[in-house]
Amino acid sequence: MDVKGRNCGGNVQISEEEMDLRRGPWTVEEDFKLINYIATHGEGRWNSLARCAGLKRTGKSCRLRWLNYLRPDVRRGNITLEEQLLILELHSRWGNRWSKIAQHLPGRTDNEIKNYWRTRVQKHAKQLKCDVNSKQFKDTMRYLWMPRLVERIQAAAAATATSTTTSASVTTPTANLGTGQMVLPPLGNNDFGTSSSNYTPENSSTAASSDSFGTQVSPVSDLTTDYYSNIPVNNNPNPDNYFQVGYSDSLISPAANYYNNHGMDFQSMDQHNNPWLDGAEAADNFLNADDYFFLQQQFNFNM
DNA sequence: AAGGAAGTCAACCGCCGTGTA
DNA sequence: CTACACGGCGGTTGACTTCCT
Length: 303
Fold this sequence. Notes:
Elements: H1 28-41, H2 46-52, H3 59-70, H4 81-94, H5 98-102, H6 110-127, H7 135-164, H8 201-204, H9 207-210, H10 239-246, H11 254-261, H12 289-301
Helix pairs in contact: 2-3, 4-7, 7-11
The structure holds a DNA duplex.
């Protein structure tokens, strides 16, 4: 055996410096070698694996390639609405703990989630001219985007239910999250867990111990028992119903108040520079034209 | 059609924690 | 205890693609 594991046939070990290591994109041949080797020998110490498989790559490079791309259970394709919701929720709790977040999205890698966050979510923050870690932005996620995602999941579930016509009762979307593919965090003292039909940012956050949103929490919890209580039982998502029931005191959502109070200019965001409106049907758009119009109306009403 | 801007994502880098000799 | 190798993780880069003018 070599120092840290397997040795490929008893030959003298060759240092990485002597191996003329390759870098950059992987070739089909390299992928094939790595897949074949792992299929035969399993995963192991990556440095020795790289040598034994005849790959002129570092162990790290092999590990990354396998975990992020070649592994058979890697799930490719667009991030679903359910996954987006889960990412937003988990990120609000754990921050940039991509690996930890990825553990709860089967088949998704930390790299993929990280890329999603940086390219999609941070884009929205940039467009709003606010920091992605700011309270305003986090509250927008909590009180606008996440409810919006829930609505859209609900609508999709309802559409599926009516098309199949086999089920009289509509399953709540979170109970049906990812068609069984979601693995929610274990139910701990402060965790949201299996009470999926009761999912809200309020009860799902870590507010009890360490509220990552800071000390001031918008008063929505007094107005809403849960998000589903604001959604008509006929599963017909309606932003007006949503806000007017949920935020009955002022008809202004907490996030809208934030933008109003912090001088953030919603009205200057026309359809040409607002990423939330462009291609509103795209999977990663949280707000549609109705939301935008509604927010504008609310701002005008209070001016 | 061409060129630049913006978006996407695979891969690399550097740091850190852990295990072992 | 110390040194070293290794794996894991988050941040960053850069090649490639798509969009826009």
